[in-house]
Write a structure and sequence with these properties.
Layout (H helix, E strand, L loop, with lengths): L1 H18 L4 H22 L11 H22 L4 H8 L2 H12 L6 H18 L8 H23 L5 H15 L1 H6 L9 H24 L2 H4 L6 H13 L5 H18 L4 H7 L4
Helix pairs in contact: 1-10, 1-12, 2-8, 2-10, 3-7, 3-8, 4-7, 4-12, 4-13, 5-6, 5-7, 6-13
Protein backbone atom coordinates (compact mmCIF):
# COMPACT_ATOMS: atom_id res chain seq x y z
CA UNK A 1 0.00 0.00 0.00
CA UNK A 2 2.95 2.29 0.65
CA UNK A 3 4.08 1.65 -2.93
CA UNK A 4 0.58 2.45 -4.19
CA UNK A 5 0.53 5.80 -2.37
CA UNK A 6 4.04 6.57 -3.63
CA UNK A 7 2.90 5.76 -7.18
CA UNK A 8 -0.11 8.08 -6.94
CA UNK A 9 2.09 10.91 -5.68
CA UNK A 10 4.65 10.27 -8.42
CA UNK A 11 1.84 10.33 -11.01
CA UNK A 12 0.63 13.69 -9.67
CA UNK A 13 4.11 15.23 -9.91
CA UNK A 14 4.78 13.72 -13.34
CA UNK A 15 1.35 14.89 -14.53
CA UNK A 16 2.11 18.47 -13.55
CA UNK A 17 5.55 18.38 -15.20
CA UNK A 18 4.33 16.86 -18.47
CA UNK A 19 1.22 19.04 -18.84
CA UNK A 20 3.42 22.12 -18.50
CA UNK A 21 4.81 21.30 -21.97
CA UNK A 22 2.30 18.94 -23.59
CA UNK A 23 -1.48 19.06 -23.88
CA UNK A 24 -3.56 16.84 -21.62
CA UNK A 25 -4.70 14.49 -24.41
CA UNK A 26 -1.16 13.78 -25.56
CA UNK A 27 -0.10 12.99 -21.99
CA UNK A 28 -3.03 10.59 -21.61
CA UNK A 29 -2.25 8.91 -24.93
CA UNK A 30 1.41 8.36 -24.11
CA UNK A 31 0.46 7.15 -20.64
CA UNK A 32 -1.95 4.55 -22.05
CA UNK A 33 0.30 3.31 -24.87
CA UNK A 34 3.44 3.01 -22.76
CA UNK A 35 1.43 1.62 -19.85
CA UNK A 36 0.01 -1.05 -22.18
CA UNK A 37 3.49 -2.39 -22.92
CA UNK A 38 4.45 -2.19 -19.24
CA UNK A 39 1.39 -4.34 -18.46
CA UNK A 40 2.39 -7.05 -20.96
CA UNK A 41 4.38 -9.20 -18.48
CA UNK A 42 1.30 -9.38 -16.22
CA UNK A 43 -0.88 -10.28 -19.20
CA UNK A 44 1.48 -13.12 -20.15
CA UNK A 45 1.56 -14.34 -16.54
CA UNK A 46 -2.26 -14.47 -16.49
CA UNK A 47 -2.88 -16.60 -19.58
CA UNK A 48 -1.82 -14.28 -22.40
CA UNK A 49 -4.08 -12.50 -24.88
CA UNK A 50 -6.53 -15.41 -25.00
CA UNK A 51 -7.32 -14.89 -21.31
CA UNK A 52 -8.04 -11.21 -21.98
CA UNK A 53 -11.14 -11.98 -24.04
CA UNK A 54 -14.33 -10.54 -22.61
CA UNK A 55 -18.02 -11.19 -23.14
CA UNK A 56 -18.87 -7.58 -22.25
CA UNK A 57 -17.03 -5.32 -24.73
CA UNK A 58 -19.73 -2.62 -24.72
CA UNK A 59 -19.53 -2.32 -20.93
CA UNK A 60 -15.76 -1.91 -21.15
CA UNK A 61 -16.10 0.75 -23.87
CA UNK A 62 -18.70 2.75 -21.95
CA UNK A 63 -16.75 2.55 -18.70
CA UNK A 64 -13.49 3.66 -20.31
CA UNK A 65 -14.99 6.57 -22.25
CA UNK A 66 -16.31 7.91 -18.94
CA UNK A 67 -13.07 7.13 -17.12
CA UNK A 68 -11.01 8.76 -19.87
CA UNK A 69 -13.11 11.93 -19.53
CA UNK A 70 -12.48 11.90 -15.79
CA UNK A 71 -8.74 11.46 -16.27
CA UNK A 72 -8.58 14.30 -18.80
CA UNK A 73 -10.47 16.59 -16.41
CA UNK A 74 -8.20 15.53 -13.51
CA UNK A 75 -5.01 16.31 -15.44
CA UNK A 76 -6.43 19.63 -16.67
CA UNK A 77 -7.41 20.60 -13.13
CA UNK A 78 -3.85 19.80 -12.07
CA UNK A 79 -2.74 22.82 -14.11
CA UNK A 80 -5.33 25.12 -12.50
CA UNK A 81 -5.44 24.53 -8.73
CA UNK A 82 -3.05 23.48 -5.92
CA UNK A 83 -2.33 19.77 -5.64
CA UNK A 84 -3.77 19.39 -2.12
CA UNK A 85 -7.05 21.09 -3.13
CA UNK A 86 -7.35 18.81 -6.16
CA UNK A 87 -6.75 15.65 -4.11
CA UNK A 88 -9.19 16.79 -1.40
CA UNK A 89 -12.03 17.32 -3.89
CA UNK A 90 -11.12 14.09 -5.70
CA UNK A 91 -11.81 12.20 -2.46
CA UNK A 92 -15.53 12.91 -2.93
CA UNK A 93 -15.48 10.05 -5.46
CA UNK A 94 -16.72 7.42 -2.92
CA UNK A 95 -19.64 9.74 -2.12
CA UNK A 96 -20.78 9.87 -5.75
CA UNK A 97 -20.20 6.12 -5.96
CA UNK A 98 -22.55 5.55 -3.02
CA UNK A 99 -25.27 7.73 -4.58
CA UNK A 100 -24.95 6.00 -7.96
CA UNK A 101 -24.83 2.54 -6.38
CA UNK A 102 -28.23 3.17 -4.81
CA UNK A 103 -29.69 4.19 -8.18
CA UNK A 104 -28.12 1.56 -10.43
CA UNK A 105 -27.01 -1.35 -8.24
CA UNK A 106 -29.91 -1.38 -5.79
CA UNK A 107 -27.70 -0.85 -2.74
CA UNK A 108 -29.28 0.57 0.40
CA UNK A 109 -28.43 4.04 1.68
CA UNK A 110 -28.05 3.74 5.45
CA UNK A 111 -28.01 6.60 7.95
CA UNK A 112 -24.24 6.24 8.29
CA UNK A 113 -23.76 6.55 4.53
CA UNK A 114 -26.12 9.54 4.36
CA UNK A 115 -24.02 11.21 7.07
CA UNK A 116 -20.88 10.44 5.07
CA UNK A 117 -22.38 12.02 1.93
CA UNK A 118 -23.46 15.12 3.87
CA UNK A 119 -19.99 15.57 5.41
CA UNK A 120 -18.36 15.20 2.01
CA UNK A 121 -20.64 17.74 0.33
CA UNK A 122 -20.12 20.25 3.16
CA UNK A 123 -16.37 19.71 2.83
CA UNK A 124 -16.47 20.51 -0.89
CA UNK A 125 -18.47 23.70 -0.25
CA UNK A 126 -15.93 24.81 2.38
CA UNK A 127 -13.01 24.23 0.00
CA UNK A 128 -14.68 25.84 -3.03
CA UNK A 129 -16.40 28.66 -1.06
CA UNK A 130 -18.55 29.90 -3.99
CA UNK A 131 -20.00 32.78 -1.96
CA UNK A 132 -16.59 34.03 -0.88
CA UNK A 133 -15.54 35.05 -4.36
CA UNK A 134 -12.96 32.26 -4.50
CA UNK A 135 -14.73 30.03 -7.00
CA UNK A 136 -12.14 28.64 -9.36
CA UNK A 137 -12.96 26.80 -12.62
CA UNK A 138 -10.47 24.17 -11.51
CA UNK A 139 -12.76 23.28 -8.60
CA UNK A 140 -15.62 22.46 -10.96
CA UNK A 141 -13.33 20.57 -13.34
CA UNK A 142 -11.96 18.24 -10.65
CA UNK A 143 -15.45 17.84 -9.17
CA UNK A 144 -16.61 16.67 -12.59
CA UNK A 145 -13.66 14.28 -12.68
CA UNK A 146 -14.70 12.87 -9.30
CA UNK A 147 -18.24 12.24 -10.58
CA UNK A 148 -16.82 10.46 -13.64
CA UNK A 149 -14.65 8.30 -11.38
CA UNK A 150 -17.73 7.49 -9.29
CA UNK A 151 -19.64 6.33 -12.39
CA UNK A 152 -16.59 4.33 -13.44
CA UNK A 153 -16.43 2.60 -10.06
CA UNK A 154 -20.06 1.52 -10.26
CA UNK A 155 -19.45 0.08 -13.72
CA UNK A 156 -16.32 -1.74 -12.56
CA UNK A 157 -18.27 -3.33 -9.71
CA UNK A 158 -20.42 -4.90 -12.40
CA UNK A 159 -17.45 -5.87 -14.59
CA UNK A 160 -15.62 -7.65 -11.77
CA UNK A 161 -18.41 -10.24 -11.69
CA UNK A 162 -17.07 -11.64 -14.97
CA UNK A 163 -13.59 -10.15 -15.55
CA UNK A 164 -10.33 -10.18 -13.59
CA UNK A 165 -8.45 -7.07 -12.45
CA UNK A 166 -5.71 -7.62 -15.06
CA UNK A 167 -8.32 -7.99 -17.80
CA UNK A 168 -10.06 -4.76 -16.74
CA UNK A 169 -6.76 -2.84 -16.76
CA UNK A 170 -5.85 -4.42 -20.13
CA UNK A 171 -9.06 -3.17 -21.75
CA UNK A 172 -8.74 0.17 -20.00
CA UNK A 173 -5.35 0.86 -21.56
CA UNK A 174 -6.35 -0.53 -24.97
CA UNK A 175 -9.65 1.36 -25.26
CA UNK A 176 -8.31 4.61 -23.86
CA UNK A 177 -5.40 4.47 -26.31
CA UNK A 178 -7.91 4.27 -29.16
CA UNK A 179 -10.26 6.92 -27.73
CA UNK A 180 -7.48 9.43 -27.13
CA UNK A 181 -5.57 8.98 -30.40
CA UNK A 182 -7.36 11.64 -32.48
CA UNK A 183 -7.41 14.43 -29.84
CA UNK A 184 -3.77 13.65 -29.01
CA UNK A 185 -2.67 13.94 -32.65
CA UNK A 186 -4.61 17.20 -33.12
CA UNK A 187 -2.00 19.17 -31.17
CA UNK A 188 0.89 16.69 -30.99
CA UNK A 189 4.25 18.06 -29.94
CA UNK A 190 7.52 16.18 -29.88
CA UNK A 191 8.51 15.99 -26.20
CA UNK A 192 11.85 17.42 -25.24
CA UNK A 193 14.54 14.97 -24.16
CA UNK A 194 14.32 16.23 -20.58
CA UNK A 195 10.59 15.43 -20.47
CA UNK A 196 10.87 11.74 -21.34
CA UNK A 197 11.76 10.58 -17.81
CA UNK A 198 8.54 12.21 -16.57
CA UNK A 199 6.55 10.53 -19.36
CA UNK A 200 7.91 7.14 -18.33
CA UNK A 201 7.12 7.92 -14.68
CA UNK A 202 3.49 8.82 -15.38
CA UNK A 203 3.02 5.71 -17.54
CA UNK A 204 4.58 3.35 -15.00
CA UNK A 205 2.99 4.92 -11.90
CA UNK A 206 -0.42 5.01 -13.58
CA UNK A 207 -0.29 1.23 -13.83
CA UNK A 208 1.69 0.38 -10.68
CA UNK A 209 -0.54 2.45 -8.35
CA UNK A 210 -3.61 0.33 -9.06
CA UNK A 211 -1.73 -2.95 -9.26
CA UNK A 212 -0.14 -2.35 -5.84
CA UNK A 213 -3.51 -1.34 -4.38
CA UNK A 214 -5.12 -4.54 -5.65
CA UNK A 215 -2.26 -6.63 -4.23
CA UNK A 216 -2.48 -4.86 -0.86
CA UNK A 217 -6.15 -5.78 -0.66
CA UNK A 218 -5.18 -9.42 -1.22
CA UNK A 219 -3.00 -9.36 1.93
CA UNK A 220 -5.18 -7.40 4.37
CA UNK A 221 -8.77 -6.34 5.00
CA UNK A 222 -10.07 -3.34 3.09
CA UNK A 223 -10.89 -1.57 6.37
CA UNK A 224 -7.13 -1.58 7.09
CA UNK A 225 -5.84 -0.84 3.60
CA UNK A 226 -8.33 1.70 2.23
CA UNK A 227 -7.99 4.35 4.98
CA UNK A 228 -4.23 4.38 4.32
CA UNK A 229 -4.98 5.95 0.92
CA UNK A 230 -6.19 9.06 2.76
CA UNK A 231 -2.54 9.75 3.53
CA UNK A 232 -2.39 11.14 0.00
CA UNK A 233 -4.16 14.32 1.17
CA UNK A 234 -1.53 15.52 3.70
CA UNK A 235 1.31 14.05 1.63
CA UNK A 236 0.06 15.88 -1.47
CA UNK A 237 -0.07 19.09 0.55
CA UNK A 238 3.52 18.45 1.66
CA UNK A 239 4.67 17.78 -1.91
CA UNK A 240 2.90 20.91 -3.15
CA UNK A 241 4.55 22.97 -0.42
CA UNK A 242 8.04 21.52 -0.99
CA UNK A 243 8.09 21.49 -4.80
CA UNK A 244 5.64 24.19 -5.86
CA UNK A 245 5.48 26.53 -2.82
CA UNK A 246 1.71 26.03 -2.52
CA UNK A 247 0.11 27.34 0.64
CA UNK A 248 -2.75 25.50 2.36
CA UNK A 249 -5.32 27.70 4.08
CA UNK A 250 -7.56 26.75 7.00
CA UNK A 251 -10.60 26.32 4.72
CA UNK A 252 -8.86 23.72 2.56
CA UNK A 253 -7.62 21.89 5.65
CA UNK A 254 -11.06 21.95 7.30
CA UNK A 255 -12.90 20.87 4.15
CA UNK A 256 -10.42 18.05 3.56
CA UNK A 257 -10.91 16.86 7.15
CA UNK A 258 -14.69 16.64 6.65
CA UNK A 259 -14.30 14.76 3.36
CA UNK A 260 -11.88 12.31 4.95
CA UNK A 261 -14.18 11.85 7.95
CA UNK A 262 -17.08 11.07 5.64
CA UNK A 263 -15.03 8.59 3.65
CA UNK A 264 -13.76 6.88 6.80
CA UNK A 265 -17.33 6.50 8.06
CA UNK A 266 -18.35 5.09 4.69
CA UNK A 267 -15.44 2.65 4.51
CA UNK A 268 -16.17 1.20 7.92
CA UNK A 269 -19.30 -0.36 6.40
CA UNK A 270 -17.74 -1.67 3.18
CA UNK A 271 -17.13 -5.33 2.52
CA UNK A 272 -13.59 -6.25 1.42
CA UNK A 273 -14.75 -7.53 -1.97
CA UNK A 274 -16.44 -4.19 -2.74
CA UNK A 275 -13.27 -2.24 -1.97
CA UNK A 276 -11.26 -4.68 -4.08
CA UNK A 277 -13.57 -4.03 -7.02
CA UNK A 278 -12.87 -0.31 -6.71
CA UNK A 279 -9.10 -0.89 -6.83
CA UNK A 280 -9.08 -1.11 -10.63
CA UNK A 281 -11.17 1.96 -11.43
CA UNK A 282 -8.69 4.79 -11.89
Amino acid sequence: MALSIASFLAMSIAGRETTAELNVFQVLEMRSVIGFFILMPLVMMNGGFAAMRTERPLAHIARNVIHYSGQAAWLYALTLIPLAVLISIEFTTPIWTAILAVSFLGEKLSKARLTAIALGLIGVVIIVRPNAGSMDPGHLVVLGAAVCFGISMVMVKSLTRTDSVVRIIFWMLLIQSAVGLVPALYDWRNPSLALWPWIVVIAFSGMSSHFCLARALAYADATIISPMDFLRVPLSALVGWLLYHEQIDIFTAGGAALILAGNLLNLQRKAPQVAEAEAATS
